[in-house]
Amino acid sequence: MKKNEIPYKIYLDEQEMPKQWYNVRADMKKKPAPLLNPATLEPMTVEELAPVFCRELVEQELDNTNAYIDIPQEIQDYYRMYRPSPLVRAYRLEEKLQTPAKIYYKFEGNNTSGSHKLNSAIAQAYYAKKQGLTGVTTETGAGQWGTALSMACAYFGLDCDVYMVKVSYEQKPFRREVMRTYGAKVTPSPSMTTEVGKKILAEHPDTTGSLGCAISEAVESAVSREGYRYVLGSVLNQVLLHQSVIGLEAKAAMDKYGVIADVIIGCAGGGSNLGGLISPFMGEMLRGERDYRFIAVEPASCPSLTRGKYVYDFCDTGMVTPLAKMYTLGSGFIPSANHAGGLRYHGMSPVVSELFHQGLMEARSVEQTAVFEAAEMFARVEGILPAPESAHAIRVAMDEALHCKEKGEEKTILFGLTGTGYFDMLAYEKFNDGIMNDYIPTDEDLEQGFAGIPNIPQNQ
Amino acid sequence: MKKNEIPYKIYLDEQEMPKQWYNVRADMKKKPAPLLNPATLEPMTVEELAPVFCRELVEQELDNTNAYIDIPQEIQDYYRMYRPSPLVRAYRLEEKLQTPAKIYYKFEGNNTSGSHKLNSAIAQAYYAKKQGLTGVTTETGAGQWGTALSMACAYFGLDCDVYMVKVSYEQKPFRREVMRTYGAKVTPSPSMTTEVGKKILAEHPDTTGSLGCAISEAVESAVSREGYRYVLGSVLNQVLLHQSVIGLEAKAAMDKYGVIADVIIGCAGGGSNLGGLISPFMGEMLRGERDYRFIAVEPASCPSLTRGKYVYDFCDTGMVTPLAKMYTLGSGFIPSANHAGGLRYHGMSPVVSELFHQGLMEARSVEQTAVFEAAEMFARVEGILPAPESAHAIRVAMDEALHCKEKGEEKTILFGLTGTGYFDMLAYEKFNDGIMNDYIPTDEDLEQGFAGIPNIPQNQ
């Protein structure tokens, strides 16, 4: 073990925690494209979004100008229950890889949701409560977001209705029980409880569900009831705003020890972790203060940034949501059943999409077996059993560290370790048994998905 | 939320972490009774124990005189990967209970084993490696110890053979997969891989196993092979020594803020968490420096302290281990299948037993449904989903806090939150579905267990 001044884990004091979120859109010269009303193709207004989302969240969603937004004291107090999260120096991994690179990771898994999702869940539940609502509805796939929202709703005394992608509901009964323990109602999606669910089931009676379907049901369930709103755990601008707490803490911890990252790596499904982690660093780059390399890592089985189209598309399968301009595989795209874990959304955060489109970020796709190989090695040397999602970032962090070894470069790598894999052991079991498959969609598979993209003028 | 100078979580700096373990036996006027050789009824010697246990651990086991034992630097470095664990002020729980009591808990669940078990696993694997061994064998019930040892063996490059109680192996396949991910070999017990396993299966072909059986198999598997030793996750003096790191950190954190506990509460199965948590505080009391109330909490379904006998008994079902003087239900006792989670060992740490016998500690047994009610409330207000084991301590901490409310007493309560319940969702599901049973052994059940206690002179 090397002697070093930098501890294994840097914990900020509670007083050093961020008191404002950072809104990267304020520093983007070309802003992300606005959400469009699919009927008029005009940008969605506060009035149009308010029946679906909590009012203050709508304002955050549309705010492209304020760089810093105060975190209400009550949210800060809830953050203090599980934050600051540690910034960990991966001494053991560096030693194992024999790399001159210095590797850091921001670990968001030390809370019961097992991921960073709680950062936005608390904020969204807070604003729902403040607005006097009875409850919120949402969807969940891998289950981390649903768990996080259940926890937040228990804190604030809100009803929580979760539409859980049917295949996850069946394969992850324990995730469901965690949500129930926090008082949430969990329904497998598609279900017969919504019109859109009935329609999808009539057309595809054997479907195992998708995030896109579950979003449609959750939205319908919210807008059809008094006192309910819909909340979403990723993709949206507001979510990236809340998740900026990850990057702000990471940056504060690194600044405290004079550490400067060269490469910043995050896994990307809807983009909330990645967007949150990179935002303050990206802000520095946008303001011309410092240069970084950013790498978004996605599964080869759901490659929205690396093989998707940058167009306006629906956020859900039932086509009940506004249109978002994003890298997308088409709202009907469903990744192969061989794909384990999350990162299975057909689209990508408009903010992340626009940053990538402007060439400010790289994207890389990785295959499942390579991801689990990285996860296993990481677990054995660093102790933490990573979520499959997080292991995408680990894979590329390792690859970059090995590249540094080849080139003899002493770079500093920061990656986001979004969560733990305790509820993903079925996937680990497949890997342990050597029966994991890497299915990558063919060009024909992708064309099928693209065919579902709405036929509208795409030069917005 | 109250304004307060004490943060939600007190994290010591890595430099403030203990550099020595504390051995409470050194301050006990009447020492715990020695292990006896069942053949001679003489105290076990280093030479007799060395074929079973690692040599340096045997020395720790028999050391009743040295109060402080250096923690080797390498173990300290591994501790720094997941320690210090936070001392949490339960502001939300206090508010929920409307109690004047101040509640603190030492949370040991923020590592992949999900519990405090890793503290001793790392120490035991370190000494095994130092001795040049090939591997170690052990048993696991709920799975936390097996996971912890798997992690530690991955760190040190040791083989790890885990005999897992058959009912847990079947009900907790995900625990098994975590161990496999760390490279351990996991065998359901009783098995046909050992003579004692074959014998037990011949007599009880339908048995679902017990910790006592699994210990017998693990011991046989170790002593019958070159380069292997047996390790145990609780009960033993050496384990309590390693676990003193919990109490030492808790005390250092409290001292830092001038907080003095009145009541200290821990769940008790084999006694390792309880013994580790209380040891430095008990040391103060034994030296006449300060008074505390200590409460051991055990399940009503496995009530070794509250209904057991304080006699010499075997540590395992196959009667291959030395005899230990402890509160015991008889080495053949198996708790009802309705009992969820751990805390199912038939005996109790000789150190804890002797302290209890001397009247230095109280013991209380609690029923399962009341335990899960406490767990649910705790999860919903404090966020952390507790292990069923840990929830025993939560139950009594809440009861004590409510007692303070009745009496208007502003006491300070410290309890050990040993771990998380992520792998115990089958039990939570029963509770959520309202089909949890509280089975308490009858006097006749207990008599059956007592009948298995060896018929030797018990006045040692």
UniProtKB/TrEMBL annotation, chains A, B:
Keywords: Amino-acid biosynthesis, Aromatic amino acid biosynthesis, Lyase, Pyridoxal phosphate, Tryptophan biosynthesis
Cofactor(s) this protein requires: pyridoxal 5'-phosphate
GO CC annotation terms, alphabetical: cytoplasm
Pathway of action: Amino-acid biosynthesis; L-tryptophan biosynthesis; L-tryptophan from chorismate: step 5/5
Lipid metabolism listed as a keyword: no
InterPro entries: Trp_synth_b-like, Trp_synth_beta/beta-like, TrpB-like_PALP, TrpB-like_PALP_sf
N6-(pyridoxal phosphate)lysine: residues carrying this PTM: K117
Catalysed reactions listed for this entry: (1S,2R)-1-C-(indol-3-yl)glycerol 3-phosphate + L-serine = D-glyceraldehyde 3-phosphate + L-tryptophan + H2O
Span of domain Tryptophan synthase beta chain-like PALP: 82-419
Coiled-coil ranges (or none): none
Enzyme Commission number(s): 4.2.1.20
Pfam families: PALP
Enzyme class: lyase
UniProt GO MF annotations: L-serine hydro-lyase (adding indole, L-tryptophan-forming) activity; pyridoxal phosphate binding; tryptophan synthase activity
Family: Belongs to the TrpB family.
PANTHER family in the cross-refs: TRYPTOPHAN SYNTHASE (PTHR48077:SF6), TRYPTOPHAN SYNTHASE-RELATED (PTHR48077)
HAMAP family (UniProt xref): Trp_synth_beta
Protein purpose: The beta subunit is responsible for the synthesis of L-tryptophan from indole and L-serine.
Quaternary data: Tetramer of two alpha and two beta chains.
Stated name of the protein: Tryptophan synthase beta chain
Lineage, opening ranks: Bacteria, Bacillati, Bacillota, Clostridia, Lachnospirales
